[in-house]
Prior knowledge:
Layout: H1 2-12, E1 28-33, E2 36-37, E3 48-50, E4 55-60, E5 69-76, E6 81-84, E7 100-101, E8 110-111, E9 118-123, E10 127-136, E11 141-144, E12 152-154, E13 159-165, E14 175-179, E15 186-188, E16 203-209, E17 212-225, E18 232-237, E19 241-247, E20 254-260, E21 267-268, E22 274-277, E23 280-286, E24 293-300, E25 303-304, E26 308-311, E27 327-330, E28 336-339, E29 349-350, H2 353-356, E30 364-369, E31 372-378, E32 380-382, E33 385-387, E34 390-400, E35 403-408, E36 410-411, E37 418-426, E38 432-433, E39 436-438, E40 444-446, E41 460-467, E42 472-476, E43 479-483, E44 485-488, E45 504-512, E46 516-525, E47 527-528, E48 537-543, E49 552-553, E50 558-567
Parallel strand pairs: 4-10, 13-17
Antiparallel strand pairs: 1-5, 2-4, 3-4, 5-7, 5-8, 6-9, 9-10, 11-14, 12-13, 15-16, 16-17, 18-19, 19-23, 20-21, 20-24, 22-23, 24-25, 24-26, 27-28, 29-34, 30-31, 31-50, 32-33, 34-35, 34-48, 35-44, 36-48, 37-46, 37-50, 38-49, 39-40, 41-45, 41-48, 42-43, 45-47
Amino acid sequence: MAIACMALTVTACVIKDDIPYPIREAVVVAFEVDGQCDASDNGYAEATIDKATRTVDVYVGDTVDLSALTIKRFEVSNDATIIPEKDICVHPNQFPSTSFTCQMGNPGSKVNFSNGDTHFTLRTYQDYEWTIRVRQLILREVQLEGQVGEAVIDPVNQNVIVYVASSVKLNHIKVHKFSLGGKNGTVSPDPTLESEFDFSNTQTFQVTMAGNREKQTWRVFVYKTNAVETVEASAFPRSVSATISGTIPMGTTPVVEYHAQGASEWTAANSGQITVSSTRFASEITGLRPGVTYTYRVTAGSAATAEKTFTTVGEQHLKNGSFDEWSSVIAKSGKELWQPWAEGDEPYWSTGNAGATTVGNSNSTYVDEGNRRFANLQSKYIVIKFAAGNIFTGDYVETDGSNGVLSFGRPFTSFPTKMRFEYKYHTSPITRTGGEWKDVYGNYISRTMYENLKGQPDSCQVYIALGDWDPVTYTSKGVAHTCPYLIRTRPSELHLLDQKDPHLIAYAQMTKGEDVNSWTTETLTLNYRVRDRQPKYIIVVASSSKYGDYFTGGEESLLQIDNIELLYE
Length: 569
């Protein structure tokens, strides 16, 4: 009877499951593997994680075995379950199903990455497929005495073709470099140990990779050529410097000379700024002037280029960097909304005032002090949220709830070396560390990740970024906005400037967590991460609270800033 009653109860309680699951997107937060390095194999670098395309890119050196590579760290959001694609785990039953950090050598986290793109499904209430791309860097070089051009190295068929000058004796060739197994692999026999090596016939070598004990058989073919050895060169000019690069005959040293157009005396580039790898070279030329045409030539051995020219990129400067121009309008809330541009002028700088005035007063304004007018950026708790005083190149697009949607960046194609400004700063103890809001699905979320900073001095931050970002379109109330770099402060969709973004060309910043009571000049030197791409946009940001994007800071922190200018030195 009891059983019958239980069955009846269960049957009676069956209801239709038509309640939609909440959306909990799963993303990769951190990813690290054994042997991880940067794209040039010159040291460690973090993986590049693209949340938009759900991809993770990571480089490894030649010391690891891709077929059994240890994942040292795999962190995902929202407690998602990690599901590897079929047949990629070395020990499938031991692979962790949630975020993990493990020691090297743990067999459970070994994965076969040797077959190209590898896929993992992150499962919450929904499934999100992520692609992990592990690229192994294997530096293979062959350099022979009298070589013409670079060796043709075919790692798929394991063949090498090398051309040498017609005067070279094929059975008596000096070998300078012969690293077919990468910089940490081995070659047997090793021709670099011999004073001369016989390449009159096809030679066979046994090659072992450092991360894989299986030997490969490589064949090397050396042929004579009547090709004339030449020098090829091209220039990539910036504003006060340029890179001259190209090819030279094997075993020669390039001499790079230049002069401003109209001058007659040649200047030789500093030999310490010339790098040579096999038949390729690159030379850095500094001390140039913006917007000037230069003539250059390159000589290597008996070969030389014709005289060529390049023109350095002219200077560009920030508009209203003195912050003398301001205007105001009345916001819908009835509050006065201050704007860092003259009435009727085109905006260049913007602030978060449009968001602050939905419930309070503008907290990024100006002050007249004697003959000086400057930006006055005040951190405040405005009715329901903490707001840092801020100013940035770009536009305030809209207020999303109580959060901001911003467009960072203005068109810019030049190459400044420094940014200089004057500032004063008053820090205050951090009292606000986020809060609780509803996301777009009505779920309450809390951002208290900086709770440990309470009571510590607040910090201001000023930074400059140059990049070649591809702009995105953001539509607000039927109006499409073209945004060089879209910023969102809504916690569930937080998107800030990523310093690991591959489109970031140059960057510099100042962070100050102490009082600076008198006007002080600060000069930031831009670090150019790449030197062969031209910027499309410039982003300059100043904030009275470094973590203002996370609604964290001190309610009395005040940054006063003036005369931001770009230098070309």
